[in-house]
Amino acid sequence: MSGLIVVGVTGDPVSHRTVDWAVARAAENHQRIELVAVVGGAMGTVGEADVVIDARAAAQKMLDLAAERVAGRGVDITTRVDNGNPVAKLIDASASANLLVIGSDYTGPGSGPARGMHGVRIAAGAACPVVVVPDLELGARSGIVVGVDGSEVSERAIRFAAAEADRLGEPLIACAVWTPLQAPRNGMAVYPELYLTNMQAATEEILALSLAGIAADYPDVKVIRRVERGYPSHVLNELAASARLAVVGTHGRGAIARFLLGSISQEVLARLATVTAVVR
């Protein structure tokens, strides 16, 4: 990976937050920024060439203004305008990036699910971690929340989250969630106490094993362990509502289905509670 952060920029208001987040991280990590705008929708019809030229000029002006606004923060910033499908172009750009940062139009509870820049498909197909920035005033928040399920991709999410916690001087809140077996015959959700106790204990063990080595590698990071009963995306978003960053993992898929996220990470992105990183 390079020391490059690619930022998808649109004309949406959230792009200001997206660029600011990426530039702040780049300044702390001594990374470069590339601001990318994509002009999409061209079909090759007669007379379209002039429209594309005007659209590219407008996109370049937008990028120039964004770069000018954050100039002087000690970050090397370049800009690029592409033509084509925005999802495909940003996924292509992720191949040479350390991080891809995009915005979401989600503005909080009551605003409906996030649509953003086709964020779910981009996060699923990108070759590097993707950070999705919601259109929220985050204010004073603390903690880096990471979802843990014991999988290999979860291990990578933990490592990403621990590195961010170490860099920012924030506690790492590692959360594993267990959900009782659902069955029509058990519609009243009455479970034997032994079953509930064993589910809690098994999840605690998964969390402990997943965090092995973190204390040695990041001795200055305070680790808070949370094992909760519930539905994973709901629990994670509740914790993320007061956190500085949330991190979730998504399992890699085959070429045909690579634009699909796992259900949990997709649900987390649909109702962002904070800036959220998706790690494969």
From TrEMBL:
Residue ranges of domain UspA in the record: 5-134, 144-280
Family to which the UniProt record says this protein belongs: Belongs to the universal stress protein A family.
Native source organism of the sequence: Microbacterium saccharophilum
Protein name: Universal stress protein
Coiled-coil stretches noted in the UniProt entry, renumbered to this chain: none
InterPro entries to which the protein is assigned, alphabetical: Rossmann-like_a/b/a_fold (IPR014729), Universal_stress_UspA (IPR006015), UspA (IPR006016)
